UniProtKB/TrEMBL annotation:
Protein name in UniProt: Protein-methionine-sulfoxide reductase heme-binding subunit MsrQ
Co-factor binding comment: Binds 1 heme b (iron(II)-protoporphyrin IX) group per subunit.
InterPro entries to which the protein is assigned, alphabetical: Fe3_Rdtase_TM_dom, MsrQ-like
UniProt keyword Transmembrane helix present: yes
A Pfam family it matches: Ferric_reduct
Cellular localisation: Cell membrane; Membrane
Keyword annotations of the record: Cell membrane, Electron transport, Flavoprotein, FMN, Heme, Iron, Membrane, Metal-binding, Transmembrane, Transmembrane helix, Transport
Chain ranges of the Ferric oxidoreductase domain: 43-148
Keyword Phosphoprotein: no
Chain's role: Part of the MsrPQ system that repairs oxidized periplasmic proteins containing methionine sulfoxide residues (Met-O), using respiratory chain electrons. Thus protects these proteins from oxidative-stress damage caused by reactive species of oxygen and chlorine generated by the host defense mechanisms. MsrPQ is essential for the maintenance of envelope integrity under bleach stress, rescuing a wide series of structurally unrelated periplasmic proteins from methionine oxidation.
Protein species of origin: Pelomonas cellulosilytica
Family assignment from sequence similarity: Belongs to the MsrQ family.
Assembly notes: Heterodimer of a catalytic subunit (MsrP) and a heme-binding subunit (MsrQ).
Length: 187
């Protein structure tokens, strides 16, 4: 069921694109909405552990990996939409754009850090790495979240629109702060 729920935003975006409902600049709308769903997926992934522990719902843990994989899928689609719709898949232009605009560099960095997490999100990879190393590697999701938030903030800074990034920032502060407090209590 969660598998299908994670596909709903993508299905809606395809429908909206096919029926010309993405507004005056459909490429920008598609790129932005895919980025929004990437952030939402990341935050939901990070919310699983606190929800599981606070609500006593240990069964939630089995959804964390699936949400993480979907976050990577949406991040990849976000990157592909930017590369294709905004830059015409011209790798030289993309490289110059990454070097010229720091928010794009941050977004690309977040995606690049997600790549090994995605590549090791399968049972065979966990077995090959060993549980301890796999867990250590997957703690990189915290850096990914911070870098993705910076990407979002810097992207919105050009339009002086910080309301939505502030909400995402506050949520991330709660999700990461909960982990810090939990670690301090157990130390």
């Amino acid at each position: 069921m969660l598998f299908l729920l994670c596909l709903l935003p993508l299905a809606w975006l395809f429908y909206a694109a096919a029926t010309n409902q993405l507004g005056a600049n459909p490429a920008e709308a598609l790129i932005r909405r895919l980025g929004d769903w990437t952030l939402r997926g990341l935050w939901l992934t990070l919310a699983i552990t606190p929800l599981r522990e606070l609500a006593g719902l240990s069964a939630l843990a089995r959804f964390r990996r699936l949400l993480g994989v979907y976050s990577f899928v949406y991040a990849t689609l976000h990157l592909l939409a930017y590369g294709w719709l905004d830059m015409g898949l011209d790798m030289a232009d993309i490289g110059r754009d990454i070097a010229k605009r720091p928010f794009i560099l941050m977004g690309f960095t977040a995606w690049a850090l997600m790549l090994p997490l995605f590549a090791t999100s399968f049972n065979k990879a966990i077995k090959a790495l060993g549980a301890k190393r796999w867990q250590t590697l997957h703690k990189a999701v915290y850096a990914v979240a911070v870098i993705a938030l910076m990407h979002f903030i810097w992207m919105r800074a050009g339009k002086h629109n910080f309301t939505e990034p502030a909400v995402y920032g506050a949520l991330l502060a709660v999700l990461l702060g909960w982990r810090v407090i939990r670690r301090l209590r157990t130390a």
